[in-house]
Specification:
The complex is a heterodimer of chains A (67) and B (375). Chain A has 67 residues and is mostly helical. The N and C termini of chain A lie far apart (41 Å). Chain A contains two helices and no strands. In chain A, 37% of the residues lie in helices and 0% in strands. With 375 residues, chain B is mainly beta. Chain B has one domain: Porin (Beta Barrel). In chain B, 3% of the residues lie in helices and 65% in strands. Chain B contains one helix and 20 strands. About 4% of the residues of chain B have low confidence. The chains are: A mainly alpha (67), B mainly beta (375).
Chain lengths: 67, 375
């Protein structure tokens, strides 16, 4: 656990301890990284067909003849 | 003592009622949706109409399920060759109008083991000359009173490539990927995610439909697209969301660094603002900037001596800008409608540093309609 916290500090800058009752704002729909999964997938597909770079959003995702 | 208990009870009663996921990332409500995505490049180039249906639902107490089906209808003219016949290098579109279809289906099942989870997923994308099949798995672990989620994953993609007009030619490519990421709550209004992804691809990467023509005096050289038979990449994506209580809005900032064994380096940054306008409406403007360097073998003439050469514009050096605006309306407790539009512009001169010369201007626009029902 300590090692993980240390990694977290190095990568993300700190181990905050926000209690469950303090997470109301974080639970709002506006705070979702991708509000609509289908829209996010379509946008990533469009960018991947026109640019050389892709990835970083997670595992999976099919290849395509468009790139 | 009694007054202290009263004060505590009063304070608890004053807390806002919020719906918090019991476990980060868990699907708590069944949702299904339909999306219609329309994409059109300027000057009569490619146009795509893409309907998508998706569902995500808890199918048992410790089991979630997600699935998505997409059907792309592609029409228009695609880039075919690069030539300097008239003097300057010109990217020429195919004279024939193409019409193609692509079908994609994916599913993912997630089993919860206490606060941790294990997922298995599959994705299949099929075109008349291209079949891509992916298997993936990932695991998520909660730490530090659920302030930190650590994700690891792996995937393997097998692509089968054939060519219109050459029924006996079949090529293959296999890409393996590994992924790790940390999502951390930084404060009651901030959350940060940082992901590292590596891919290792081996096999056929050429674009058999593209070629380069060079006129040197009276001599004419023609070469088809030839690329290395391996590609390794690293993507480092970091996303930050910040809630602004005074405005009831959320700021999003994404940054991704990418590099690969073909010599391409890219930076992507995206800024979004999610602003509820009323209890029904919310708006989300997005600005995205992307820049990439050229592949080491990118060339608009045949004069490459390395054996690999490609004039594919996607391997050139350029910068892009995307401006988008999404509007969503929540009607009742169950239905959300979304409408959005955006413009995507690519320019050689917008790259940090210098872009590839002779790269044509590229403009595209898109629009989307979406409907989501929560059960």
């Amino acid at each position: 656990m300590k090692i993980f916290c240390l990694l977290s500090v190095l990568v993300l800058g700190g181990c905050a301890n926000v209690q469950p009752w303090e997470r109301g704002y974080l639970a709002k729909p506006e705070m979702a990284f991708d509000p609509n999964p289908a829209t996010a997938a379509q946008m990533q597909h469009m960018y991947a067909s026109k640019e050389a770079a892709s990835g970083g959003y997670g595992v999976g995702g099919g290849g395509c003849g468009c790139n | 003592m009694r007054s202290a208990l009263h004060a505590l009870a009063a304070a608890a009663a004053a807390l806002p009622l919020v719906s918090l996921p019991v476990r980060a990332g868990q699907i708590e409500e069944a949702k299904t949706g339909l999306n219609l995505f329309s994409y059109q490049e300027r000057d009569g180039r490619i146009g795509v109409l893409s309907p998508t249906a998706w569902v995500q639902a808890p199918v048992a107490r410790d089991l979630d399920f997600e699935a998505r089906v997409t059907f792309d209808s592609v029409a228009g003219a695609s880039p075919q060759y690069v030539s300097n016949e008239g003097g300057p290098v010109v990217h020429t579109l195919s004279s024939a109008s193409i019409r193609e279809w692509r079908k994609e289906g994916m599913f993912k099942a997630t089993r919860w083991l206490g606060d941790d989870s294990l997922s298995l997923g599959a994705d299949v994308s099929s075109e008349h000359d291209y079949l891509s099949q992916t298997l993936s798995t990932d695991a998520k672990f909660e730490f530090l009173n659920k302030n930190v989620t650590w994700a690891i994953g792996a995937s393997v993609t097998g692509d089968a490539i054939s060519f219109t007009g050459f029924p006996d030619i079949h090529q293959r490519r296999v890409t393996r990927g590994v992924f790790t990421g940390i999502t951390q709550i930084l404060s009651p209004t901030d959350i940060l995610q940082s992901n590292l992804a590596f891919t290792n691809g081996r096999g056929y990467f050429d674009d058999h439909y593209e070629y380069t023509v060079s006129f040197l005096g009276r001599r004419v050289f023609l070469d088809r697209d030839r690329r290395p038979d391996a590609r390794h990449s690293l993507s480092w994506l970091t996303r930050w969301k910040h809630y602004v209580p005074a405005l009831g809005a959320a700021l999003g900032l994404d940054y991704r660094y990418y590099q690969d064994s073909w010599g391409i380096r890219s930076h992507m940054s995206e800024l979004s603002w999610h602003q509820p306008l009323s209890t029904t409406w919310s708006a989300r403007p997005v600005v995205r900037y992307y820049t990439q360097s050229a592949a080491s073998f990118y060339s608009t003439t045949v004069a490459s001596s390395s054996g690999v050469s490609s004039s594919d514009t996607r391997l050139a050096a350029f910068g892009t800008l995307t401006l988008a605006f999404n509007l969503s309306a929540r009607l009742g407790d169950r239905d959300t409608f979304e409408i959005g539009a955006g413009r995507y512009v690519q320019r050689s001169s917008w790259r940090f540093g210098s872009g590839s010369p002779d790269l044509p201007r590229f403009d595209a626009s898109y629009a989307m309609l979406g409907w989501t029902r929560t059960f």
